[in-house]
């Protein structure tokens, strides 16, 4: 039982929180991810010292000069390379110390997604620092990149070992054709439901329906009370851990042609293909949810932020006749589906940021052209096991929690062409078979995104 003080809204230290954590990326966007290796601790600390002032805090996010999205995160090996004391390194949780590649089998990264097939240097001990840089246009991106390059200038002990450019597709959607980024959790004190960006950039709205109950800040920020009614374990010293979070970085290659062929092979018309795609995802490509638009797409509904996310499953679609129980969005956020079980959905939510990379496959093309295209997923939360790994192992790659046995997420699950996907309907359900893998993991990292004071602490370790 939490006491009255824990039920009071917590005040977030916005000036110390990297803006990326609490605010969505710019829209439209262009950007890049960089991975760095530190071979000299002094140069690494100097780099952090020079990068820290360029990280916009959540407090300053809406200031016009700070419309760009810039963040700094480090691997466990990177913290060691900076000279973080061993006692501090040991205070991090074991899954972070092990790294994502070491936990690949648990996450379903097997077969083609096995780390032995990942893009180098992802999954290796060479990855020390990860930078993400996003802006609304090329000029804004170049401005931020120039500042980052200046911070690295004259530091031979720091090298850029990987770059992945990302950009919004002309459609404004993912490579599979779906609107993305819907249904983020509302964080107590600064959630996406209370502060939303418009395409014009930065308008403020009141709370929108459909985001579910507000979730305690401690689920996403270290140093605050979480949904268990306590402050969770935090890396030491406190200045290092407070206002930080853990990051799961995932590069997923999307097999767009295979997805299109599967729809075509299992539908009798283009209209049925669209319905099948919507059943697999749980929303039409426009973003309109099947629970509210079960038979036909409704772009007007999708474009209305007051309606597009305002639905529940148990109340409106308990049997999955509209939105299948095993669809992608119903797995990633079961909402009230598990209200009569011992699973508290609020304990397993994670912030998610995504960006597309690679060229579009031409509309209607059913054969793969060999290009690398897909999406970068960024998951953020204070407990990698309870949040990200639970979502991957229990919700994406298992079906028991919704009574579907061995069925997996039809879009991002580790399917192997032997899987099935069940579509409830009356009088007889439909079961799709030979479900292939549409998302192939090309790399991943577990990272720690420190608060801004922590960045400065890291920079002064030699002082």
From TrEMBL:
<protein>
    <submittedName>
        <fullName>Dyp-type peroxidase family</fullName>
    </submittedName>
</protein>
<keyword id="KW-0408">Iron</keyword>
<keyword id="KW-0560">Oxidoreductase</keyword>
<dbReference type="InterPro" id="IPR006314">
    <property type="entry name" value="Dyp_peroxidase"/>
</dbReference>
<keyword id="KW-0575">Peroxidase</keyword>
<dbReference type="InterPro" id="IPR049509">
    <property type="entry name" value="DyP_N"/>
</dbReference>
<comment type="similarity">
    <text>Belongs to the DyP-type peroxidase family.</text>
</comment>
<dbReference type="Pfam" id="PF21105">
    <property type="entry name" value="DyP_N"/>
</dbReference>
<keyword id="KW-0479">Metal-binding</keyword>
<dbReference type="InterPro" id="IPR011008">
    <property type="entry name" value="Dimeric_a/b-barrel"/>
</dbReference>
<feature type="domain" description="DyP dimeric alpha+beta barrel">
    <location>
        <begin position="17"/>
        <end position="151"/>
    </location>
</feature>
<dbReference type="GO" id="GO:0004601">
    <property type="term" value="F:peroxidase activity"/>
</dbReference>
């Amino acid at each position: 039982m939490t006491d009255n003080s824990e039920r009071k809204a917590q005040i977030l230290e916005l000036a110390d929180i990297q803006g990326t954590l609490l605010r969505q990326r710019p829209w439209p966007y262009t950007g890049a991810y960089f991975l760095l290796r530190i071979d000299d601790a002094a140069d690494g600390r100097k780099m952090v010292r020079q990068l820290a002032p360029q990280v916009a805090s959540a407090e300053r996010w809406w200031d016009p000069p700070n419309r760009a999205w810039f963040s700094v995160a480090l691997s466990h090996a990177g913290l060691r390379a900076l000279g973080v004391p061993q006692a501090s390194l040991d205070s991090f949780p074991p899954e972070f110390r092990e790294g994502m590649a070491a936990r690949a089998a648990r996450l379903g990264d097997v077969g083609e997604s096995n780390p032995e097939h990942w893009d180098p240097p992802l999954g290796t001990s060479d990855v020390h620092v990860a930078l993400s840089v996003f802006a609304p246009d090329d000029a804004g991106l170049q401005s931020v990149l120039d500042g980052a390059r200046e911070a690295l200038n004259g530091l031979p002990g720091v090298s850029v070992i990987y770059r992945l450019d990302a950009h919004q597709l002309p459609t404004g959607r993912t490579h599979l054709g779906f609107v993305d980024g819907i249904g983020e959790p509302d964080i107590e004190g600064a959630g996406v439901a209370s502060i939303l960006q418009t395409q014009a950039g930065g308008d403020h709205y009141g709370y929108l329906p459909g985001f579910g109950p507000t979730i305690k800040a401690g689920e996403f920020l270290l140093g605050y009370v979480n949904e268990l009614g306590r402050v969770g374990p935090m890396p030491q010293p406190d200045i290092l851990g407070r206002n930080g979070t853990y990051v799961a970085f995932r590069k997923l290659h999307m097999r767009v042609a295979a997805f299109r062929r599967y729809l075509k092979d299992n539908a009798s018309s283009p209209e049925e293909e669209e319905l099948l795609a919507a059943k697999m995802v749980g929303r039409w490509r426009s973003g309109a949810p099947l629970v509210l638009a079960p038979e036909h797409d409704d772009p007007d509904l999708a474009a209305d932020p007051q309606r597009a996310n305002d639905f529940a499953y148990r109340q409106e679609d308990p049997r999955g006749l509209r939105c299948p129980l095993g669809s992608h969005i119903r797995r990633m956020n079961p909402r009230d589906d598990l209200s009569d079980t011992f699973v508290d959905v609020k304990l397993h939510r994670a912030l998610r940021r995504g960006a597309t990379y690679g060229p579009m496959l031409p509309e209607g093309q059913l054969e793969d052209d060999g290009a690398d295209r897909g999406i970068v997923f960024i998951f953020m939360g204070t407990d990698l096991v309870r949040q990200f790994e639970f979502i991957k192992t229990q919700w994406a790659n298992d079906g028991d929690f919704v009574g579907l046995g061995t069925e997996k997420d039809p879009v991002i699950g580790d399917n192997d062409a032997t899987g099935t996907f069940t579509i409830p309907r009356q009088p007889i359900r439909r079961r799709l078979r030979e479900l292939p893998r549409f998302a192939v993991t090309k790399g991943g990292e577990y990272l720690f995104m420190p608060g801004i004071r922590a960045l400065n602490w890291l920079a002064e370790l030699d002082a």
